[in-house]
Amino acid sequence: MSNDTDDLDNLIALMAKLPGLGPRSARRAVLHMIKKRGLVLLPLAEAMHRVGTTARECLNCGNIGTKDICDICESPKRATGEICVVEDVADLWAMERSQVFKGRYHVLGGTLSALDAIGPDELRIPKLLDRIKVEDISEVILALGATIDGQTTAHYIADQLPGVKVTSLAQGVPVGGELDYLDDGTITAALNARKAL
Amino acid sequence: MSNDTDDLDNLIALMAKLPGLGPRSARRAVLHMIKKRGLVLLPLAEAMHRVGTTARECLNCGNIGTKDICDICESPKRATGEICVVEDVADLWAMERSQVFKGRYHVLGGTLSALDAIGPDELRIPKLLDRIKVEDISEVILALGATIDGQTTAHYIADQLPGVKVTSLAQGVPVGGELDYLDDGTITAALNARKAL
Ligand SMILES: [Zn+2]
Ligand SMILES: [Zn+2]
């Protein structure tokens, strides 16, 4: 490519770093954007700028919204006494799409991992323990992946909460599976069949 | 998702429309961007805005650059007398990456298609015929896909250029390709174009 394409090369390189995209799909995506400059490229630039300036993590649960406290944490309807603990915001979105859970969330921001030296303080675990003291919580539902790190994290959290009802999603979540890959029906079935740890 | 996520939903919806992305990969990509706001999201917004305001099609060949005439058309080194005709800018980039072609290009912007009612005037074919009159062209290389529409387009262009040397890329087994993965048409073409060793 020639030197009047520096901006283009830069855009392709940035796109190619997104998860799920590689150089080839980034080039295709960028050509598509340029062909649809008014319908795709400029609206995307504007949407990214907007999200980049407004998006923030909820100080209570770690969900992404535009305010210090997200809509789910603010809504009295969601004060069911249940907190669903997830690894990631993508998992929270997957739960919300299944529409079966009516309570609030807590986004850990990952799982405990000896290998990656991720301990409780690297995650939103201290804040979870605070919430359980302050909010009127009847049940903590651990909706963590059926991976070794996910289950280690689940047991660690359960150990920190003596006297609190702690449940986890039923097996039905495939071994090694991540929540975000599951269809709504599987999530619904796994939630309905949840068991006490 | 809740109503303080309108900007986020909008960004995900726009990303999901890009070729190669769907709703799930768009959500993953957007979460990744937000986590890497300074390294990914804001630079992407800026790069898109820049490309959106500077990118334009070369008036001569249809390549994408930032000037009315692209670097390849402007470079005297590329005046080899050869024009390589491609369907799309992505194909031009693929040729440039192979570094084997030293001449100039002509980007048709698609192929003739009876089904989609795309005739010569919907493509950059009239401009190609003009260039062959004006530029000092010794050979037109048709690097079009081995599809029915691609080959129809190749034959149409060859018919418009009596007295001009018109060639096309050889069809055959891709380098590193295993026969077992190829469709019958490719194997047939490769067999018909077989050469003595
Ligand atoms: Zn929240
Ligand atoms: Zn050009």
UniProtKB/TrEMBL annotation, chains A, B:
Q: Which domain of life is it from?
A: Bacteria
Chain ranges of zinc fingers (C4-type)? 58-73
Q: Where is the Toprim domain?
A: 81-174
Question: Which PROSITE patterns does this chain map to?
Answer: TOPRIM (PS50880)
Annotated SMART domains? TOPRIM
Q: Which GO terms describe its biological process?
A: DNA recombination; DNA repair
Listed InterPro entries: DNA_Rcmb_RecR (IPR000093), Rcmb_RecR (IPR023627), Rcmb_RecR_Znf (IPR015967), TOPRIM_dom (IPR006171), TOPRIM_RecR (IPR034137)
Tell me one GO molecular function of this protein.
Answer: zinc ion binding
Task: Name the Pfam families on file.
Answer: RecR_C, RecR_HhH, RecR_ZnF, Toprim_4
Keywords assigned by UniProt, alphabetized: DNA damage, DNA recombination, DNA repair, Metal-binding, Zinc, Zinc-finger
Q: What does this protein do?
A: May play a role in DNA repair. It seems to be involved in an RecBC-independent recombinational process of DNA repair. It may act with RecF and RecO.
The UniProt family comment states: Belongs to the RecR family.
Q: What is this protein called?
A: Recombination protein RecR
**Organism for this UniProt entry:** Cognatiyoonia koreensis
Q: Which gene encodes it?
A: recR
